[in-house]
Amino acid sequence: MNYKLEGNGKAMVFIHGLSDNLLYWEFLAGNLKHDYQVLRVDLRGHGESELGDGEITIDTYVDDLHNLLEELNISKVNLIGFSLGSAVAIDFTVKYPQNVESLVLMSGFYKVEGDLRNTMHQFRNNLEEGFEEFYDAILPMILCPDVIDDNVEELELLKELTSQNANTKAYVKAVDACLNFDAEKDLLKINIPTLLLAGKYDDISTLDIQKDLHVKIKNSKLIVFNDVKHNLLVGKNNEKILNILKEFFN
């Protein structure tokens, strides 16, 4: 399991989304490592982590993370999960509540049904056609049109670079893990400070899902960003989210 550990202090664990890797958190980690111990991980089959054999569930990712934390002698963490990472963070909190101090869910979800289920099946079909097909399908769902229009060349270059090392088999298994994930009954067990960060125009983890999370997790706060879709770390929001996290952790 590939990871990067930096800094000292309270432990912050960052868990990326589908087809991402630990580099997704570069801005936040680079700024938080001066005041906290920051751990970023690559989930199985993502980044430089091996996929391994057999079926993968959200529990698989959770156990991987728990084993890593034990190896690093980190007993208490603050979890920050984005999209797929939010499901891992929720499941980890339910399974190992004694190890979690607080929870941050960005574009999160707690089960896959309705439109989200249809979207996940669409992603699965796209991935079976190839990573570039998946990239083209997901891009307008995670970024607003103006961001795409202003960064056409950069986004095409990113597609070319990421497709070279993309592990579509791992991503399909990750989608299947999401399709089988349902933590609705477990949300009532979460009673730690929880911060929910949502995009107003999110086409994947819709605002209605975020509001449901807010209702079902007792000690939670919901912040909605009015200018983004699924990917919240865009433009000025990087700095905003950094300041929000600092205030939350303090």
Residue-averaged pLDDT: 96
Shape descriptor: globular
CATH class: Alpha Beta
Structural class, from helix and strand content? alpha/beta
State the CATH topology: Rossmann fold
Neighbour order of strands in the largest sheet? 1-3-2-4-5-6-7
Helix content, binned percent: 40-55%
What oligomeric state best describes the polypeptide chains here? single chain
Q: Architecture in CATH? A: 3-Layer(aba) Sandwich
Give the tally of structural domains.
1
In this structure, how is the largest beta sheet organized?
Answer: 7 strands, mixed
Question: Roughly how many Å is the radius of gyration?
Answer: 17 Å
Taking pLDDT < 50 over at least 5 consecutive residues as the criterion, the unreliable ranges are none
Q: Strand content of the residues, in percent?
A: 15-25%
Count of helix runs: 10
Number of strands: 7
